[in-house]
Amino acid sequence: MVAVLDADCALCHVVWAALAGRAGAAVRVVALVDHTDGFDTYPDAELIADPAARAEVFEGYAPTVLRLDAAGTVVERTFVDAETDLSDLSGPFRSPAMSEPASES
Hints:
Layout: E1 2-5, H1 10-20, E2 29-33, E3 45-49, H2 51-57, E4 64-68, E5 74-79, H3 86-89, H4 96-99
Parallel strand pairs: 1-2, 2-3
Antiparallel strand pairs: 1-4, 4-5
C-alpha cells in the first residue's frame, strides 16, 4: 500500500497514522512524501521523502492511497477526503479476484 502525502496537509497526517498503524508482515505500508517534517515514524511502515518518485505517482491530489499487487501494479486508487472511512483503507488487502462474489452454479 502506498500513500501519496503532502507534509502541509493535516488530513495526510491522519491518513498516515491510520495506515501505518496497520503495517506489518501481511501489509507493507509506504508513504511517499515531499518532506518528512511533522510526520510521525512507525516501526513497520516506511516514510520516504523522494520528490521525484512522489511526482511520478502524484495525480494532483493528496492524500491518495494506492493498493498494489505483488508485481507492483496499482489495482485500486482512493482519493481520501474528510468523509472517507479510514478503517476501510487500512483493512486487509483483497485482490480484485478475491473480492468478487462467488458465482452460482
